[in-house]
Task: inverse folding
């Protein structure tokens, strides 16, 4: 048996079918998934919880309190849900970098 964790992150250009991976050791299995929006996040959480029996979910700081609550409800208390958060200076550095790469530009057509 392995300790199974999902790290879930948002990106405006994510393709959930392509932007994922699994990293494993003898005791640890880390699923990494990038999604475009909350509906995809919920779909991934439900699927991996059901199919893999996740023990823990770690969310990027972009998830709102409402998003976190929806994810917690989706796993029905069967695994821990955590959010990565930074301090004020770290958030400013990250925001600046995201702006430079065009993170907040209007989404492409079809989103």
Result:
């Amino acid at each position: 048996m392995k300790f199974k964790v999902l790290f879930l992150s948002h990106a405006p250009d994510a393709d959930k079918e392509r932007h994922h991976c699994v990293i494993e050791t003898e005791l640890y299995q880390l699923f990494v998934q990038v999604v475009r929006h909350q509906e995809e996040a919920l779909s991934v959480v439900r699927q991996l919880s059901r199919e893999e029996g996740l023990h823990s979910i770690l969310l990027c700081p972009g998830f709102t309190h409402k998003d976190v609550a929806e994810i917690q409800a989706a796993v029905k208390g069967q695994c821990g849900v955590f959010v990565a958060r930074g301090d004020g200076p770290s958030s400013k550095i990250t925001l600046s970098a995201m702006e430079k790469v065009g993170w907040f530009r209007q989404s492409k057509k079809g989103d």
